[in-house]
């Protein structure tokens, strides 16, 4: 009576077969990616720029929707129909592929020399001896605010948490939705909120490494503090936030109905397209003068399929990805993704520049659970989506959220079992 | 000696071949795969019933399995108690003589079943959205606005809402099946009853209903199989972690997360196969029970 799962998987198999068929053309390299939004940019800007330097090589950019990327890629790699170049998720997803022999080792390959060790960590084996994807870009987290609303209400970028909540109160009084955020899709609650505002509380890398080493627990005050802040957001998230999707939040902010938007830097391009006048501020610190920390997450890399049909061409493309030209094009055209190479690049977009400048004064850290912590059962990322959404909705107490994550973590992570 | 009836084999071949290659073999392979486990390098080794023991006894697994199972039962009960009775009522009304525009109603009610579930999910998400949806405004007009809530976002109501959306979409199918059965009820019996002075109500309960009972049984079992295989509506509206707090998680979404993985969760084909086997057993048990307890006892009237 329903379309069954079975039908869905048959459909996926047919799509995969079709994609495989189109990739078989000689001399054509195919790029697997989840960045559906960037398709035109790749086709109109990046690929032509590469072809100018490397005439005769055909490049095809074939993205799959982000939520389906990992599963369909796994299926295609196993079936031998995946493309030549594989866009890599950071940490365990790609490590898993490398361990299965589905990504080439890239140490010492042309282009890799332009990346500092810190950029490569996301795509290295735990001992750092094998690198299997070239770092492409990172994303940063913080808050966007509507400049016009802030000006009309005479508000300033809040620096401390007290100022932040005062700003929210003022926005609410003025009849605006203070925070454009919903929990229907759940992922924002963790990736954009918890690991972003929490970095200040657990002092960035210090707190993250302490968790991995077993020297700290999620139930410690510095981690519970992040959820405690989130628990106070509820009244400012607007009516029906529990059924509000990510796209709803984007629209709400783009239409000028909300004052503040908890954001990832990848959203810059979208709001620029909507013609919105907005600025950015980093997550507020507990009290004035505290050192600030930002979530500066290594997000995209590029690897090579060992079974690539045109491996030599794929390596040529990879070498170009390491170049100054690519770093400049990617940072300035795909606004909100920041190149990880050490080429000097001038960022033109004002908001992107503003965010990039936070690196000068704040400590950078990656998303809390991105490395190692996502490895076991139960899957911590999914658990964090769930509990953080519930905390925002006022359905779960911060300390219960912490206890749940800690219990799951200690179940499989040896250093946490002491 | 009689010649071998080769033509029978030839005529059966396409169906047998297609069915075995695309249905029977994958099913058998799934059953087999559930007894294996795979390591980091992707090699599989035999572990016997270990996967099943994990799913049913390890709290991290069993909690989500039983949660999905219970949600799935609720999902099915809502269909059984709402979709099928409505289907029956609609079919009965449509089969009334002299109903104007019956064809139009029939087409309109059947139409949603033809749409993609993804579109249905998207449309209803918009209709029910507390930000842009029309439902709050409509409820305001009839003075019920105080009862409006973000139904798809609340733990208590999300699953029921999704089940009702699914009912809305698929009610056309039981309606059509029952409608066809009602049309097959011979005119002369109904007319004879009329002549004897039976009311329309009594004709329905004592003549039409017993005659269409086999169809109602069929509809029930189709609903059961469909609902325990359901996946796409929940996935398209709530994603594979079926929030809030797994309140909309059903066996299909649990299977998807286990087999393909979701976000940081890395998929495990062997565990996924074990979940799929459990789904298969649940459906098999249901269908078996139906045949044993219901189908055997149904009386078919020779007309």
Automatic annotation (TrEMBL), chain A:
Cellular component aspect of the GO annotation: periplasmic space
GO BP annotation list: transmembrane transport
Domain of life: Bacteria
Record's keyword terms, sorted: Signal, Transport
Pfam families from the UniProt entry: SBP_bac_8 (PF13416)
Compartments, record wording: Periplasm
Signal peptide feature range: 1-26
Gene3D superfamilies: Periplasmic binding protein-like II
Protein function: Part of a binding-protein-dependent transport system for a sugar.
Family label: Belongs to the bacterial solute-binding protein 1 family.
Protein's name in the database: Probable sugar-binding periplasmic protein
Organism, as annotated: Chitinibacter mangrovi
From TrEMBL, chain B:
Record-linked InterPro entries: MetI-like, MetI-like_sf, UgpAE/MalFG_permease
Gene Ontology cellular-component terms listed: plasma membrane
Location(s) in or outside the cell: Cell membrane
Leader sequence residues: none
Keywords: Cell membrane, Membrane, Transmembrane, Transmembrane helix, Transport
Principal localisation: membrane
PROSITE patterns: ABC_TM1
Membrane topology of this protein: Multi-pass membrane protein
Pfam families: BPD_transp_1
Membrane-spanning ranges: 75-96, 108-127, 158-182, 203-225, 271-293
SUPFAM superfamilies listed in its UniProt record: MetI-like (SSF161098)
Gene Ontology terms: biological process: transmembrane transport
Keyword Nucleotidyltransferase in annotation: no
ABC transmembrane type-1 domain ranges (all copies): 69-292
Similarity annotation: Belongs to the binding-protein-dependent transport system permease family.
Official protein name in the record: Sugar ABC transporter permease
Originating species: Chitinibacter mangrovi
Phylogenetic lineage: Bacteria, Pseudomonadati, Pseudomonadota, Betaproteobacteria, Neisseriales
């Amino acid at each position: 009576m329903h379309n069954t799962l079975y039908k869905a998987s048959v459909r996926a198999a047919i799509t995969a077969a079709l994609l495989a068929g189109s990739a078989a053309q000689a001399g054509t390299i195919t790029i697997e990616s989840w960045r559906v939004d960037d398709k035109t940019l790749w086709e109109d800007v990046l690929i032509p720029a590469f072809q100018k330097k490397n005439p005769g090589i055909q490049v095809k950019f074939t993205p799959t929707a982000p939520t389906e990327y990992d599963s369909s890629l796994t299926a295609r790699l196993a079936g031998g129909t995946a493309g030549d170049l594989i866009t890599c998720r950071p940490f365990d997803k790609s490590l898993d592929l490398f361990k299965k022999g589905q990504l080439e080792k890239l140490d010492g390959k042309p282009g890799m020399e332009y990346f500092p060790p810190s950029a490569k960590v996301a795509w290295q084996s735990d001992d750092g001896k094998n690198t299997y994807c070239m770092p492409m870009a990172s994303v940063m987290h913080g808050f966007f605010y509507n400049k016009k609303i802030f000006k009309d209400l005479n508000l300033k970028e809040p620096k401390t948490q007290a100022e932040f909540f005062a700003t929210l109160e003022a926005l609410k009084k003025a009849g605006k939705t203070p925070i454009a955020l919903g929990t229907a899709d759940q992922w924002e609650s963790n990736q954009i909120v918890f690991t972003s505002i929490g970095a200040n509380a657990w002092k960035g890398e210090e707190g993250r490494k302490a968790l991995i080493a077993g020297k700290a627990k999620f139930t410690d005050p510095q981690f519970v503090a992040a959820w405690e802040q989130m628990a106070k957001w509820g009244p400012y998230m607007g009516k029906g936030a529990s059924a509000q999707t990510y796209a709803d939040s984007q629209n709400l902010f783009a239409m000028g109905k909300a004052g503040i938007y908890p954001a990832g830097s990848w959203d810059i391009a979208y709001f620029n397209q909507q013609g919105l006048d907005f600025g950015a501020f980093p997550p507020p610190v507990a009290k004035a003068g505290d050192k600030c920390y930002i979530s500066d997450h290594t997000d995209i890399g590029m690897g090579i399929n060992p079974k690539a049909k045109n491996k030599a061409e794929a390596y040529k493309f990879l070498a170009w990805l390491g170049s100054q030209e690519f770093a400049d094009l990617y940072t300035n055209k795909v606004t909100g993704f920041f190149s990880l190479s050490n080429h000097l690049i001038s960022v033109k977009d004002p908001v992107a520049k503003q965010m990039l400048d936070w690196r000068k004064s704040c400590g950078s850290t990656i998303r809390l659970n991105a490395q190692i912590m996502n490895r076991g059962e139960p899957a911590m990322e999914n658990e964090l989506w769930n509990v953080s959404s519930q905390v925002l909705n006022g359905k779960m107490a911060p300390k219960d959220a912490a206890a749940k994550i800690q219990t799951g973590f200690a179940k499989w992570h040896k250093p946490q079992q002491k | 000696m009689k010649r071998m009836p080769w033509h029978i084999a030839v005529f059966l071949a396409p169906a047998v071949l297609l069915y075995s290659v695309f249905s029977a073999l994958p099913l058998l392979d799934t059953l087999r795969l559930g007894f294996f486990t795979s390591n980091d390098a992707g090699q599989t080794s035999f572990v016997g019933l270990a996967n099943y023991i994990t799913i049913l006894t390890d709290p991290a697994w069993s909690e989500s399995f039983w949660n999905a199972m219970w949600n799935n039962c609720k999902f099915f009960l809502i269909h059984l108690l709402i979709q099928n009775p409505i289907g029956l009522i609609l079919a009965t009304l449509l089969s009334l003589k002299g109903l104007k525009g019956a064809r139009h109603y029939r087409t309109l009610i059947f139409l949603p079943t033809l749409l993609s579930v993804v579109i249905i999910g998207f449309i209803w998400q918009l209709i029910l959205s507390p930000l842009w949806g029309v439902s709050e405004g409509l409820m305001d007009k009839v003075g019920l606005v105080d009862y409006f809530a973000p139904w798809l976002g609340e733990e208590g109501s999300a699953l029921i809402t999704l089940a009702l959306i699914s009912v809305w979409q698929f009610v056309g199918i039981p309606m059509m099946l029952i409608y066809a059965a009602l049309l097959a009820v011979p005119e002369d019996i109904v007319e004879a009853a009329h002549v004897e002075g039976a009311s329309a109500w009594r004709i329905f309960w004592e003549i039409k209903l017993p005659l269409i009972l086999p169809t109602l049984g069929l509809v029930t079992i189709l609903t059961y199989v469909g609902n325990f295989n359901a996946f796409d509506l929940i996935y398209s509206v709530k994603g594979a972690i079926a929030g809030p707090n797994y309140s909309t998680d059903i066996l299909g979404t649990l299977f998807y997360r286990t087999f393909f993985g979701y976000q940081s969760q890395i998929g495990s084909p062997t565990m996924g196969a074990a979940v799929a086997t459990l789904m298969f057993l649940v459906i098999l048990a249901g269908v078996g029970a139906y045949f044993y307890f219901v189908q055997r006892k149904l009386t078919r009237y020779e007309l």
